[in-house]
Design brief:
It is built from eleven helices and twelve strands. By secondary structure, it is of the alpha+beta class. The protein folds into three domains: 90 residues, PAS domain (Beta-Lactamase); 73 residues, Helix Hairpins (Orthogonal Bundle); 170 residues, 2-Layer Sandwich (Heat Shock Protein 90).
């Protein structure tokens, strides 16, 4: 059994513990009181009530440690006598991932509510002002209409990113089957950002190595990956700095099997502290909240990138140095039989 299981006698002494139980609580538990394995009061009460003849009992307990784990403990009284004198069977089910998922859903709803409330408040305030004090003031009316337009556009971007993220997450476990030319996708993404690049005076250079750039993928999703990464580089790069894009074949990439195509998007921005790198692809996680909002960011761009690359069985590598800039490297597997190997 993959789950920890104990057999105890009438006096709560441990008769047997499977390998999963010994791995979690240590060996040498036989003939010792159950309290030597688990001291949690709710767990002990659960076992005592089962031994007292009550129906199957359950309790929830959290074990401390470097990574906190939460278990559902179940204790069932054995109705028939047996040779070893076992009176109850106790099993533990790790529900940490369930609680984490529930917490993530709760946090997501709270974040979405917060992100939508801010522009809605600005819109409602603008409408109220236009109906009152600014009704006959052309300058004030123009100013408030500009603010309302900006906040409405922010809401539109947020809703668009939420829909994109939802679509990607639904299909994340189904690998694309089409064939695309990655070099063409990169070039189209750069062309789409050309107007913004010129407006912000941040030129984009691109160097794609010679070779076969065909991979298994979804053209629209991969276009969004590079659009989001280039957009971030333009937003957070220093004034008059350059955005450098390069693409090459790599024989080995950590976490991938076989050769891969690697595309680097490098900016000359302020860089990102190392403490943020592990969380930067989380939904609504921002390194600088006020600056991100000022730049029109939704906090979902890199989360979308991560989930699209998960669907393509790829990886996103992030390197950054304060005062120098950041490099985001998209790695996509080349081989057609990756999915077959995953299923074997």
């Amino acid at each position: 059994l993959a789950e920890p299981v104990f057999l105890v006698d009438e006096k709560r002494r441990i008769l047997l513990a499977n390998l999963a139980a010994e791995k979690l609580f240590g060996a040498g538990l036989a003939a010792r009181d159950f309290v030597h394995a688990i001291r949690h009061p709710d767990a002990l009460s659960c076992v005592d009530e089962a031994l007292a003849g009550r129906d199957a009992r359950e309790a929830i307990m959290t074990l401390p440690g470097p990574v906190r784990s939460t278990f559902r403990i179940s204790a069932v009284r054995l109705r028939q006598s047996n040779e070893i004198g076992a009176a109850a069977v106790i099993s533990l089910t790790d529900i940490s991932h369930v609680l984490e998922a529930e917490q993530m859903r709760s946090d997501f709803v709270a974040n979405v509510s917060h992100e939508l409330r801010s522009p809605l408040t600005a819109l409602m305030g603008g409408i109220e002002t236009l109906k009152g004090a600014a009704r006959d003031d052309p300058a004030a009316r123009e100013r408030f209409l500009d603010t309302m337009e900006r906040e409405a556009a922010r809401m539109d971007r947020l809703v668009g990113d939420l829909l994109s993220l939802s679509r990607v997450e639904v299909n994340e476990h189904v690998r694309p089957s089409g064939r695309v030319n990655l070099a063409t996708i990169i070039e189209k993404a750069i062309d789409a950002m050309a107007t913004q690049s010129r407006a912000e005076n941040r030129p984009i250079t691109c160097a794609i190595a010679d070779g076969d750039w065909e991979i298994t993928g979804d053209a629209d999703e991969l276009t969004q990956v590079f659009h989001n990464l280039i957009d971030n580089a333009l937003k957070y790069g220093r004034e008059n700095s350059e955005i450098r894009i390069s693409a090459e074949r790599r024989d080995r990439v950590p976490g991938l099997q076989g050769p891969a195509l690697a595309v680097r998007v490098q900016d000359e921005g302020e860089g990102i502290d190392s403490e943020h790198l592990l969380r930067i692809t989380e939904r609504f996680y921002r390194v600088d909240d006020s600056r991100s909002r000022q730049k029109g960011g939704t906090g979902l761009g890199l989360a979308i990138v991560k989930h699209i690359l998960n669907r393509h069985r790829g990886r996103l590598l992030i390197e950054s140095e304060k005062g120098v800039g950041s490099t985001f490297t998209v790695c996509l597997p080349l081989e057609l039989d990756v999915q077959k190997r995953e299923l074997s």
